[in-house]
Amino acid sequence: MNQEYTEKCPAKSSEQGFMARVGMALADWSEKWFPDAYVFAAIAVALVGAIALFLGRTPMQVANDFGKSFWSLVPFTMQMAFVIITGYVVAVSKPIKKLLVHLASVPKTPRFAVAYVGLIAMLSSLICWGFSLVLAAFLSREISKRVKGVDYRAIGAAGYLGLCSVWALGLSSSAALMMATKSSIPPALYKISGTIGLDMTLFTWQNLVMIIILVGVSFWIAYASAPSAEHAKTAEMAGLQYKDEEEEVDAKPKTPGEYLEYSPILTLVVVALGLGYLYTVLSTKGGLAALDLNNYTFGLLIIGMLFHWTPRNFLKACGKAIPMSAGVFIQFPLYAGIFGMLMGSGLNEILAHFFVSISTKETLPVTVGIYSAVAGLLLPSGGGKWVVEAPYVLEAANQLKCNLAWIVQVYNAAEALPNFINPFWMLPLLGVSGIKARDLAGFAMLQFFIHVPVVLIMLYVLGLTLDYVPPIMQ
Question: In angstroms, rounded to a whole number, what is the distance separating the alpha carbons of residues 80 and 332?
């Protein structure tokens, strides 16, 4: 906060409400003591390695388990990186920017503006979480320029709701897409689970119920907690300048070699081939059955190419998006190594027996939900963390005859909860909006405290409606 902001907003912390004060205190503590997300993954490597030694593995065996499995997630790592890249590329394209102008004209009051951004963030996250983060960040900036008295902290937290509420219940759910894509499932895990189609996870009425309830609850909290105009801390007060971005002037090629960079000819050729492939896959496999991680990301890539029109514009957007995927490239191999040590030491079987011993068929979803939420604080990665957890939670489900697909959805609903606290996935939004993670903490924590009991109750009640289905081997 700058001096000007302090002078304009001398509000005491005691005036911000109990939840906001707790959130800010936790954010201050985490900003000082929490290391980078990579360090959390490295700590998990050391912890699992130490446990493997305790269970009787020799140091060389542990090292071999780690090294042999280290590159086993390369295809999945690339797929997750492309989710981030393609989501960003689509979000910053001209058609989407024009859409943002229209969307930003809807809210007229500060409180509705905050809830409105949250709604758009959640709905767009059902399509792609990477797209949602960037879209919501640009939308909050545009609305802050149009609607006077919008609290920049509240609207920033609302833009983050997609990643904390429902994204994993939507089409970019890394766990659900992975389990529907045989080539993405580690062989050892495949023996436990088989493939689990999206018709058993995302496209069920139980999942739709969770989406509707969570969107409704999140929208209400965002609206009810947003400060009125006279009590708001605006972007201007915080020294944030949201200026209109200068439109790029359509440049012309300076050399014959640059002609194709500025021409849409090659874009149209690639897009035509891509659309032809997608049409063939969708028509032959029957629509939803064709939607796996590869086809989903491929479709986003084709849309991004089309929306940017020329290779030059498309590559420029990709260049800005690629740094956002650095964490995935660096951390996912560590998760693969953890997976190898889990399987090599037999720790996965011990954990499976533990879950079986403290759970019944009816309570396993709640047990797994609590565990996944807590583990998410240390391993802030939807896809990578699922690779670590899946062997023992799905084996426990097999032993207790609990629906395997519902355990995938239990993970999806619960693992998003720690995102309210852990700032790892905020980075793209923070980069666009210019605010800091601590500024969102108070409103995010308020959402967290209400979401936890709502999610756990739904996991238990809806789980009672599903029967066990043995693993499907293709």
Answer: 9
Q: In this structure, are residues 41 and 331 in contact, taking their beta carbons and an 8 Å threshold?
A: yes
d(CA 79, CA 294): 7
To the nearest 10°, report the CA torsion of 245, 249, 254, 259.
100
Helix, coil or strand: residue 73:
coil
Q: Token digits for 262? A: 């500025």
CA neighbours closer than 13 Å in the CB half-sphere of residue 397? 30
φ and ψ at residue 432, rounded to 5 degrees: -80, -40
Of 119, 226, 125, 112, whose CA–CA distance to 171 is shortest? 125
- The answer to whether 447 and 164 are in contact (CB under 8 A) is yes
DSSP single-letter state for residue 230:
G
**CA nearest to 90, candidates 236, 257, 306:** 306
Q: Cα-Cα-Cα-Cα dihedral of 113, 116, 122, 127, to 10°?
A: -110
Distance CA 437, CA 426 (A): 7
Both tokens of 357, joined, read 């011993």
The span from the CA of 313 to the CA of 95, in Å, is 13
DSSP assignment of 240-299, as one string? Answer: ---PPPPPPP----SSGGGGGGS-SHHHHHHHHHHHHHHHHHHHHHTGGGG-SHHHHHHH
Dist CA 415 CA 16 (whole Å):
28
**What is the residue-level pLDDT of the chain in tens, covering all 474 positions?**
444 444 444 444 445 555 445 544 554 565 566 566 677 778 888 988 898 888 888 889 889 989 988 887 787 778 777 877 887 788 788 888 888 888 888 998 888 999 999 999 999 889 877 678 778 888 888 888 888 888 888 888 898 898 888 988 988 787 888 888 887 788 888 888 889 988 899 999 999 999 999 999 999 988 888 887 767 676 565 555 555 544 444 567 677 777 878 888 889 999 999 999 888 887 776 655 556 667 777 888 899 999 999 888 898 888 887 877 777 788 778 888 887 887 788 876 777 778 778 888 899 999 999 888 877 765 656 666 787 788 888 988 998 999 999 999 999 999 889 888 765 566 556 655 566 666 777 788 888 889 999 999 999 999 999 999 888 776
DSSP three-state, residue 302: helix
CA dist., res. 315 & res. 253, Å (int): 16
DSSP, res 194: B
d(CA 28, CA 439): 10
